[in-house]
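Reviewers of the previous submission asked for a worked example of the structure-prediction workflow described in the proposal, so we include one complete record here. The input consisted solely of the amino acid sequence. No template or homolog information was supplied to the procedure at any stage.
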Amino acid sequence: MAQFGREHDEHAGPATASRRFIDWGLAEATAGALGKSGPRVTVAEATEVVEQLRRLAGEAADHVEAFTGLRPSGPPAPVRVVDRRAWASANIVGLRAVVAPLLMRATRGREPGPLADAVGSRLTGVQAGTVLAYLSGRVLGQYEVFASDPGQLLLVAPNIVDVERRIGANPRDFRLWVCLHEATHRTQFTAVPWLRAHFLAEVAAFVDAGGSGEEIAERLRRALRDLVDAVRDPSNQRSVLDLVQTPAQRVVLDRITALMTLLEGHAEFVMDGVGPRVVPTVAQIRARFNRRREGGHPIEKLIRRLLGVDAKLRQYAEGRQFVHQVVTRVGMAGFNRVWESPLTLPLPHELADPEAWITRVGVSAETPTPPAAPSGNSAQPPGAESASNSAQPAGAESANNSAQRAGAESANKADEPNG
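From that input alone, the workflow returned the following C-alpha cells.
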C-alpha cells in the first residue's frame, strides 16, 4: 500500500519544563501506534492525489480572494499534503511551541515533583497521543497556527480519499470543496495581520485564569468523577473542557468561542457563495456528507461529545447565519470591517443579533446583491468530519490546563474537516 507524501519537520524542541509535564515523544509515538491505516492506493494514485490537492489549494485561494476581497500580505503560508501520522506530528510541534511558555506561566516556573515527573508526564503524553490518534483519522484539513507565523495549511490526503470514496463523490469536486473551506481560513490569518497574535493572546489569557497548579489538579480530580456521569447520561452535553475550567476561564472561553464561530461561519459562507460556481456536484456532495455525519456508532458519538466536537459543529451554523445576515444588510465590504481590529470582532451576544454588531461598529448600509441563503441541510464544512480550526487537536485537553485550550481550538480548528 502506497504512502501519501509524508513530511517531517525538524524542530529544536520546547523548553525542558514542557517535557517534564508532558512526554511529547510518547505522545507522538502513541498517536502513530493507535492511528488508523489509510485507504489502499497505488503509488500512482497517491502521487496524483497529492499533486491535485496542491493545485486545487492554489485554485481555491484565488476563488476565496476574489469572493471576499481579502488580500494576503507577507510571505504565503505553506500548503502541506500529509498523511495521518504527519498530521499528528505537525500538531504536536504546534502544541509544544505554545504549551511550553504557557506551562511556565501556569506553574509560576516551578518544576513538577518526582512523581509527577516520572508518571504524570507519561500519562499526559499517552492521553494527548490517544486524542490525536482519534482525530488524525477524521480531520480532512486544518489551518494550523501554533507552530509558525502565519501558520500552515494541512490537507490530510488519506482522510480526503477515504471520505470521497465512502460517499461516492466526484474526487476533483470533493477535493476542491475541502480546499475552499481551508483556503478561507488561510486567507483569514494571512490577510489579517493581527489575528494570529490576538488568538494566541486569548489562549494565554485562558491559561492565566486557570489558577494555581494545585487548583488545576483538584479540578481534574473532580472532572474525573463528573466524566463518569457524562458518559452515563446521553443528554449531558458537557465536554472534557467544560468539566475543568474555572468561572474566570469561561469568560475568556466565550470570547474565544465567538472568534472561532466567526471564522468557521465565514468559511462556511464562502463555501456557499463560491461552491455552486466551481464545484458542479456540490449539492450531491453536501447531501451525502450530511447523511454520513448524521450516522455513526454510539461510541463514536460519545467520543465526539466528550471532546467538544459537537459543540464546534454548532458554530458553523450560527457563524454562517451571522455572516449571511451582515453581508445581506451591508455588503461584503461592510462585513469586512470585522477584520479591522480585535475591537470590531463580534461580541458573543452579537452573533445572534447581527444588527447590534452593525450598530456598534457603525457600518453603513449598502444595497448589496443578496447572497445565496445558507441551506438548512447544508453539510458541515469538510473539517466537520471530525473535530479545527480551528481548529487544533484537543490533544492536550487533559494534560494540564495550559494545553487544554490550545488543543481544543487549534483546530481550527481539528477543522473537523476544516479548522
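Residues 36 and 310 are 22 Å apart (CA to CA). We consider this example representative of the routine output the project will generate in years two and three.
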